[in-house]
Amino acid sequence: MFARTSLSGFPEWLPGGRIVEQNVLDHLREVFELHGFTSLHTRAVEPVGELQRKGETSKEVYVLSRIHDPQAEVTDKTLGLHFDLTVPFARYVLENRNQLAFPFRRYQIQHVWRGERPQDGRYREFIQADIDIVADGDLPRHYESELPLVMFEALSALPIPPVTIMINNRKIVQGFCEGIGVDDIDEALRAIDKIAKVGPDGVKQILTANGVSEEQADKLLALAGIRGGKETITNAVTALGVENETLQQGLQELNQVLQDTHEQAGDHIVADLSITRGLDYYTGTVYETIIEGHEDLGSICSGGRYDSLASDGKRSYLGVGMSIGVSRLLSRMSSQQMIKPTRTVPTCVLVAVANEQTRGESNAVARVLRQRGIATEVSPKASKFGKQIKYADKRGIPFVCFLEEDQSVTVKDLRTGQQEPIDPATWMPAAEDLKVRVVSDN
Known about the structure:
five-stranded mixed sheet, 14 helices
């Protein structure tokens, strides 16, 4: 359902694919709003200095420059396209803190840009759908359980295979590093985050290249290999024999999330201690989500808790958020033919035109149908009815209306060939035909 494009990493959809995209976005909006999240839209650009403070993705920021000044020097005040929605959201909270009611629940669905190498499911321009809850000074832990349940509800209702949300708490890795004497904790977190890409051996090479001993690296990899439910996690971490207060705090917080989410999500929310997230602003619980049977795609939904992202020097605004990589999800849904639209146009009815002198009468019938919520077109040409029917059939329009000589109206179902008289003021197509639907292709 992708259109051909010569610019790699900038997806464009054919009409059917765009209908699927809109259907998915509408579904996400509905779920988010059912849970009380307010829609936001922020500007596309931020100062480069702000974007560069938020982790290793700073190397992927697209910088804006005027076309007549291509050699302009890049400074902290240079504008760059945002690579995620959390950084501009943090700025938005600070600028509008006196007008917002906390805890503030927001959802945001926008394009973002990231200068990475395009590949399956990864683009340079893509859509993210975020939800965040931000509090002024104190953020209760129960929000860390609420967000993955909202995302589980949203994703589980899509016609895709089951999803698994994997969670961890960065305090576990931080405390473990402190307990075994690893000094550069941030580098250790970033290295472990790459385990799905480079494997345990690759992570070990990164760790040892940054001053971690082989023994320490092996212990960190043993920690990262732990996965399962509450009891499994507790016993496996305890068995590693590392004692540290931060480690224990992180383990308690992780177990609380597992306990809170089990009734609704069961084993679809599990602990995975290899999940650390590469961005610097996460401070506690972190999340990643995979589609079962499509693990090669990587995470389609991720996020975490951040305790120091937004601050005005006097007050800190703590938050927890999750983000769906909508374009990544749609690319797999399309390439694997998981879903398709029932038709590739919104039009339900084509009103035929007998001749150009009666086009006004055809337009009048179309207006009546539209006033009643039925998407309607008028035939572009007053050609032979057979050609008008072929035009509708080619576009996937299910019904064609004809004005008879006695001014009555008939409608023909192009799928069955059945034609019957109707009153445009009362006739209604079947519910499954009225609007374009997205259905499973399996």
